[in-house]
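Data availability (excerpt). The following record was deposited with the supplementary files.
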Amino acid sequence: MSGQSKSGSVRRLYRWNASIIPTVTLVPFPAECKIYKQVTMYYCDGRFWVVPYDATKRNVCDVPPDDSPWLPGWKALTFEHCPNSVSSVGFEHPNTRLAIQRPNLTWRPQLFPDGCSATGVNNQRGGLQGNLALILALGVFSAPPGQMADAIAASFKLGQWVPHNFHHGRE
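Predicted structure:
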């Protein structure tokens, strides 16, 4: 997973476990493990920009392989509004804002800038789902570069976001 910050590019692999998400530190990468999904994300002017691959290995402006529906260039992170006010994060969805905004939604300010907030406030339950690689990348941007791995390890617990005490890394 890659991300751009003031200090430069941050590149880490994370392993999904039902209860925690540790950083993969094994070198070389174990042969029995396979990369599930990769994304590259950066933050600029209040928005996240993404591509569904490792942009350090392929030029974003290049025409993709014939079997890829992805057009060249960065795309804004978007949302599908699902039943029960759940927001599904992904690529090329129709909405640029979350489906729900309520005062006690603790994951919203840590994972998303204000520009992604839903318009208006209500007390519906809501939630977040979608592309796991994008959700992990958002978690990485929830803390400064030196604290990204700690934020991910502290915040993804049993399928829920547990707020951490780091300042977000969207500078």
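Summary of structural features: The helical segments are 107-111, 132-140, 148-155.
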